């Protein structure tokens, strides 16, 4: 599968270029074992068997819209989908604006310096395949391209000599950030979303306000899937897993590690305050604890 981005990059002379990126399979996540404290006797939970078909030869063509955010390892942009086609299968041909429509998408973009972090995030999404569209966004692949010296990618670097390699994860576009100045509707549902991650052994080591979003609300989004653990459709999604890890911690320990950060964040939200992790009393830099 390939991803083509039209008119976003330019040459050093300002001529619009198309970027063509190839889908790559990130390596499997290597679990972390604590070996002491509140840990599972048989180690981290096994990775659920994938139910997805093998990647095809589709080409997804998009244009980049507005920037939605940025973080340690990359920037997130909304994209407009122009078409999805398969040169080997003429039946696969979705053209905008003709129905059926593809869901709204975003891309998370990293330069060469942060490729390994974004690759790890893509691997974590693969590890949590049963939770895609449930507790986390649907993920549609990790793509890379080596850039010519004449290629300039906006917002990544002002130096035309870098980055020479571009990495992208394609994700489902989610809803808005959580509301401020009030008690979070269905707060218990958000705790259940974090419990979903814990059941697969995933420790979100970067719990913060900006990494929790509402489920997709757009009419062009795919409906949420029923949670395999709670039997409902969750209202919230967790994002940004470039520093997440898979562990052998018990569900109880996962809960208390989450409580130390999510609890203060939710309380501050009621007072219209966004509390960052480093401002939380007793913060240990989001290093999970086994004890």
Automatic annotation (TrEMBL):
Which portions of the sequence form the region Disordered?
Answer: 36-56
Q: Which SUPFAM superfamilies match?
A: Protein kinase-like (PK-like)
Q: Which InterPro entries match?
A: Kinase-like_dom_sf, Prot_kinase_dom
Q: Which residues form the Protein kinase domain?
A: 62-291
Q: Which GO terms describe its molecular function?
A: ATP binding; protein kinase activity
Superkingdom assignment: Eukaryota
The cross-references to PROSITE patterns, in alphabetical order and at most eight, read: PROTEIN_KINASE_DOM
Protein name from the UniProt record: Protein kinase domain-containing protein
């Amino acid at each position: 599968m390939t991803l083509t981005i039209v008119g976003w990059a330019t040459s050093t002379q300002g001529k619009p270029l198309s970027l063509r990126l190839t889908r790559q399979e990130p390596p499997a996540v290597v679990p972390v074992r604590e070996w002491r404290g509140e840990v599972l006797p048989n180690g981290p939970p096994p990775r659920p068997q994938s139910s997805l078909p093998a990647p095809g030869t589709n080409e997804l063509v998009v244009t980049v819209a507005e920037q939605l955010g940025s973080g340690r390892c990359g920037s997130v942009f909304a994209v407009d989908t122009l078409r999805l086609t398969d040169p080997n299968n003429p039946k696969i041909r979705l053209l905008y604006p003709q129905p059926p429509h593809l869901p709204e998408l975003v891309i998370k973009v990293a330069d060469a310096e942060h490729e390994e972090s974004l690759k790890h995030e893509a691997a974590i999404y693969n590890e949590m395949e049963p939770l895609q569209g449930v507790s986390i966004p649907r993920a549609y692949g990790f793509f890379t391209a080596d850039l010519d010296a004449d290629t300039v990618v906006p917002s990544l670097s002002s130096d035309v000599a870098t980055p020479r390699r571009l990495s992208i994860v394609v994700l489902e576009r989610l809803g808005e950030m959580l509301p401020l100045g009030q008690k979070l509707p269905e707060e218990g549902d958000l705790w259940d979303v974090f419990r979903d991650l814990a059941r697969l052994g995933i420790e979100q080591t970067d719990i913060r306000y900006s990494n929790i979003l509402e489920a997709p609300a757009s009419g062009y989004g795919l409906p949420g899937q029923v949670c395999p653990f709670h039997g409902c459709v969750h209202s919230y999604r967790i994002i940004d897993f470039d520093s997440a890890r898979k562990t052998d911690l018990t569900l109880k320990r996962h809960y208390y590690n989450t409580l130390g950060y999510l609890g203060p964040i939710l309380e501050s939200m009621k007072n219209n305050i966004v509390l960052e992790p480093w401002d939380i009393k007793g913060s240990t830099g989001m290093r999970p604890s086994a004890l």
